[in-house]
Write the structure tokens for this entry.
Amino acid sequence: HVFVRSGEEWTHKAKLLAPNREAYDSFGYSVAIYRDTIVVGAPYDGVEFWSGSAHAFARNGEEWRYHAKLLAPYVAELDNFGTSVAIYEDTIVVGASREGGLGPSSAHVFVRSREEWTHQAKLLAPD
């Protein structure tokens, strides 16, 4: 849900929903907003079992619209992609807490050019 504050009063403006959502995908597990863009994590969404996803929404005037589904380029079971999300200007970072259920955590960087989000990098901590 999106709320806007005016003075001391909060007003409900929109309910954000991902298309093709499922009951246990944990849509809303993580949320970030920057100006007219909101990104929402769903770490238990699954092309594969709990592979996860993130969803971008854009505001046009007073209306929020679904913009894109972000996925890791290599999807594996138990990645939990979408456990954390962050956004600044035209860059979204999405955390995956468990690479394949056993591996290290990672962060995926997506960059927006015009209306398209493109995966730019996968970040891993050095050994």
